[in-house]
Amino acid sequence: MNDEINILITNDDGIRASGLKALAAVLNNVGIVTVIAPEVEQSASSHAITLNKPLRVHEYGNSWFSVTGSPADCVIMAIYGIMDRRPDIVVSGINHGPNMGEDIIYSGTVAAAIEGYILGIDSMAISVSSRSCRDFDEASRISAYLVKRMIQKTSERKILLNINIPSQKDNKLQGIKITGLGSRVYNDMIVKKEDPRGNNYYWIGGGKPGWKDEENTDFHAVKSGFVSVTPITLSMTDYERMPELEKWDLNTKKL
Question: How many other CB atoms sit within 10 Å of the CB of residue 116?
């Protein structure tokens, strides 16, 4: 263990999640670990930050804490309210289920890593491809390896990674690939039901997700049995569209 490396672990599945426990156990051999995770599951919470109600922190001992808020809240609380020393790395996961393509916009797991990156810390989000995964041994070993590689990087520029690991029951691990984000195919996004009184109600995201099977993407890599490692940037400016907008001749005098 490197007692000079301070690792913050969080997630969006909550403080009791099996993936979180497996990740913390293996990273205890890499550096000094602090676990600060949501008190309850916060899946698909995206980058929500709690502004209009107080946050409460529960300490479990051995540097484990829960926060009554979102994954992004946990990272903010860790850095500015709980930890005595700023973390060197933020690791979010291991998420129960994939976070690929456009889905990272909704992901609380990825949002926690993004918050760490925004605050100037090397960060990664880690997910396993199966939502029914019960064995995180291989995923946690891969996670530890990638955390060690992040620690060893020579560039001073901060890095943000999104990592997806094939489920052991679905694939025999083939290796690791550097990928881009894939593209989601949306099927049956709304499930309509009727309650006993004859009133309609709806579930969002009821259909099984589909993906465009394009090479060099996170989905294609995971489907083929590879760990997908995707570097993420937060710049959302569409520079290629700017010349087109210039041609609109926008002028307040024409209002």
Answer: 28
What global pTM score does this model have? 0.91
Both structure tokens of 225:
């049995």
Is residue 120 a part of any domain in this protein? yes
CA 144, CA 155: separation in Å to the nearest integer?
Answer: 20
Most distant CA pair in the chain: distance in Å? 66
CA nearest neighbour of 87 among 156, 171, 145, 31: 31
19, amino acid identity: G
Structure tokens at 127: 């997910």
The answer to whether the beta carbons of residues 39 and 15 sit under 8 Å apart is yes
Number of domains in the chain: 1
Q: Give every residue of the chain whose pLDDT is below 70, as ranges.
A: 1, 169-171, 186-188, 205-209
Domain assignment present for 244: no
CATH number at residue 29: 3.40.1210.10
Give domain status of residue 228, yes or no: yes
Q: Starting from the edge strand earliest in sequence, which strands make up the sheet with 32-38, in order?
A: 57-61, 64-67, 32-38, 6-10, 89-96, 122-128, 160-165, 226-231, 175-178
DSSP 137-172: HHHHHHHHHHHHHHHH----S--EEEEEE--TTT--
- Tens of pLDDT, residue by residue over 205-220, are 666 667 778 889 999 9
φ, ψ for residue 153 (rounded to 5)? Answer: -60, 145
Domain assignment present for residue 61? The answer is: yes
- Parent domain of 140: 6-182+212-234
